[in-house]
Specification:
Blueprint lengths: L2 E5 L4 H12 L3 E6 L6 H5 L3 E4 L5 H8 L4 E4 L8 H19 L3 E5 L21 H18 L4 E6 L3 E3 L8 E3 L8 E3 H14 L5 E6 L2
Parallel strand pairs: 1-2, 1-4, 2-3, 4-5, 5-6, 6-10, 7-9
Antiparallel strand pairs: 8-10
Amino acid sequence: MEKIIVFGAGGRAGRAAVAEARRRGWEVTAVVRDPSAYADLAESGVTVLAGDATDAGSVARLAAGHDAAIGAVYRADADAAEFFAAAGRGLADGLARAGVERLLWVGVATTLPTEEGPRICDGPDFPAEWRTFALAHDAASAAFRGSDLDWVVVTPPMRLEEGEREGAYRTGTALLPGTDRITYADLAIALLDEAEDGKHHREQIAVAGL
C-alpha cells in the first residue's frame, strides 16, 4: 500500500485530498496543528498527527517512510509572507531529509499567467492587498524550485467550491479559459492523479472543471 502525508489536512482542500487518497486505498497521515480538533479524520482510518510545515525537523520526522506529500497549508492568524515562505522552506528541507521526493502543493490562481503572458497578480489593475498574498504564496514555490524535490504546484481557479465529486478536470500551463471553477473533491482528484502518475514535474499547472 502506498503512503501519503497531507500537511494542512484540516482545511477544505486538505480534507478532500485525505478523502480521495483513502478512496484509492492509500495509507494516509494527516498533519494538523491540534489533532484533538479533528477526531473525525481519525475515525476514517487516517493517522492524525500534530505537526508544523514551517519546521523542517517536524516535517522530516513525520514524513519519513511516505511515498509522496501534499501541502495544503494556510494560517489566517499568521503573516502570509512569513508563513508561506517558511512553509516552503520547511517542506523542501524536511521532505529531503525524510527521503520523500514527490510534493504536490496547492497553489492560488492569481499566480497563474494569463493567455497573454503576465501573471494575474502582476496586472496593472490587480488589488495591491491581493498581490501581497499572491506573492507570499509564490514564495513557497520559490523554495521548491531551489530544491531537488519533484514538485508540482497544482493551481485551482478562483472559484474553488464545495460540491459533488464530478471525476473530471482540465489542466494547462496558464489560466484556463471557459469554466472558472472546480470543486474541492475534483481538485483532490488532480492532486492524487499527480501523486500516482506523475505527469508533471517541477512546474506549476492550472486545473479547472469541465
